[in-house]
Amino acid sequence: MAPSQKQGSKKRVRTALKDVVTREYTVHLQKFVRDKQFKRRTPTAIKGIILFAQRHMGTKDVRIDPKLNEAVWAKGVRYPPRRIRIRLERKRNDDEDAKEKLYTYATHVPGITNFHGLENEVIDAE
């Protein structure tokens, strides 16, 4: 039999509903596309970005900005970038029929060529 939880211990459950937040991350795409055949590398990188956003923002609904899609596909299907800087925004879903109350919108942060020393940043909502 599996051990049951102690009655005195209450485990805190972290929810994403508390805040609408914007963060910048560096995603290491090489981890996702390593050992993939050439024709599946960039589609796998896009799926990796979606998986990364789901893990870090706590929402299942992730939407990719067309500029981010173009940045990943810039060198073709064989050669996605090894790293990419993205901005993830957790937003409220205004649609009445939506299953999820929040969604994540992923955009590209252009102009970054050297990723050394970059850290994850929380962007203040203005």
Task: Describe what this molecule looks like in 3D.
Helices cover about 20% and strands about 25% of the residues. The chain has 3 helices and 5 strands. A 5-stranded mixed β-sheet has the order 2-4-3-1-5. The chain is globular. The model has no long low-confidence stretch (mean pLDDT about 90).
Please provide the count of β strands: 5
Query: Describe the biggest sheet?
Result: 5 strands, mixed
Number of helices: 3
List the secondary-structure elements in sequence, H or E. EHHEHEEE
Secondary structure: helix percent? 10-25%
Described by the principal axes of the CA atoms, the overall outline is globular
Kindly report the spatial arrangement of strands forming the biggest sheet.
Answer: 2-4-3-1-5
Q: How far from one another are the termini?
A: 53 Å
Q: Tell me the Rg in angstroms.
A: 18 Å
Range of strand content: 15-25%
Please mark out the parts with pLDDT under 50 across 5 or more consecutive residues, or reply none. none
- The chain-level structural class is alpha+beta
Average pLDDT for all residues: 89
